[in-house]
Amino acid sequence: MSSLIRTIAAHIKHRVLNYTLGWVYRFYAWRLESRVMMHPRPKHIGIILDGNRRWARERSMPPTYGHRVGYDKAKQVLEWCWELGIQTVTVYALSLDNMKKRNPEEVSSLIGLVEHAVEELSVDPRIKNNAVRVKVIGRRELLPPKLLEKINTLEQDTLHNTKHNLFLAVGYSGRAEIIDAVRKIVKDAVSGALSYEGIDEQVFSKYLYTAGADDPDLILRTGGETRLSDFLPWQAIYSEFVFMDVPWPDLRKIDFLRAIRTYQSKQRRLGA
Predict the structure, then answer these.
(1) pTM here?
(2) How far apart are CA 11 and CA 28, in angstroms?
(3) Triad 111, 134, 146: Cα angle to 5°
């Protein structure tokens, strides 16, 4: 009998502790978000969602499992961004380098996730309610024709949404983006549509995949690495950077809010 009582007491203690910790977390998150909302938030955030593979490996699961959980986290983070009034989000979903060099099975799984994301975004009422324009950026010609068709439909359906932008970087490389921009500029210059003398930074930016959007104010990378990995090299020259050791699937709202607070604590001096 005494053993049963001890078991029940331990269970109650565990439940009370979890409830208390949960309440403390919610209160801290609310307080932190209140402070974030008192100051200007970044207009454009670029996110390198790294750490899915390591997270899965630590749980003796295949990389594909980590990517699936990471996809669910990305949907959650997008909701946080919209709640904070962040206008543009660029998500580094699949790099051109990884697309060419990683295990074909893993790449196929990632492309399948991209297709699933495009299908969900096409019917997600939050896209319409938040007036989100969706665009896939990268070497799109490498994607399957069926997926490209769905992407084109989604982009056309959201073309006139003007409150928010969502850029999905798929088969993306910053160097490739710059090369593609140069090719278009040369073509227009040769045809006479653009004068050589008229080429400057503003004109060049109009030929990038992200044309029309503000450059990112903040680049956030999870997973413990402290490099850009060919992500928005032209656009990120004046961005603030926040690198986190936490793997992407474990990112909490308070971690995200702390990143925003770090950005807000900076005295931004563009060009200095």
Answers:
(1) 0.88
(2) 26
(3) 40
Instruction: Report CA torsion sign: 244, 245, 251, 254.
Output: negative
pLDDT for res 267:
73
Do the Cβ atoms of 185 and 13 come closer than 8 Å?
no
How far from chain centre, in Å, is Cα 141?
A: 22
Residues 45 and 86: beta-carbon distance below 8 Å: yes
Q: Give pLDDT, residue 260.
A: 96
How much is the pLDDT for 13? Answer: 56
Q: How far apart are CA 178 and CA 234, in angstroms?
A: 8
Distances (CA, A) of 83 to 41, 44, 69, 80: 11, 14, 22, 5
Residue 27 pLDDT: 77
Long-range contacts of 109-112 (CB under 8 A, 24+ apart): 109/63, 109/64, 109/67, 110/67, 111/143, 111/144, 111/147, 111/170
Among 11, 10, 12, 91, which residue's Cα sits nearest to residue 52? 91
Q: What average pLDDT does this structure show over 223-239?
A: 96
Active-site annotation holds for 161: no
CATH architecture of the region 41-265: 3-Layer(aba) Sandwich (3.40)
Q: Where are the domains of the chain?
A: 1-38, 41-265
Contacts of 20 (CB under 8 A, 6+ apart): none
Please identify which of the residues 50, 52, 215, 217 carries the catalytic annotation: 50
Average confidence (pLDDT) over 232-249: 96
Q: Which of 52, 98, 165, 215 is catalytic?
A: 98
Helices (H), 61-191: 63-83, 96-101, 104-123, 125-129, 145-157, 174-191
Q: Write the pLDDT tens digit of every residue in 131-154.
A: 999 999 999 999 999 999 999 999
Whether residue 50 lies in the annotated active site: yes
pLDDT value of position 30: 80
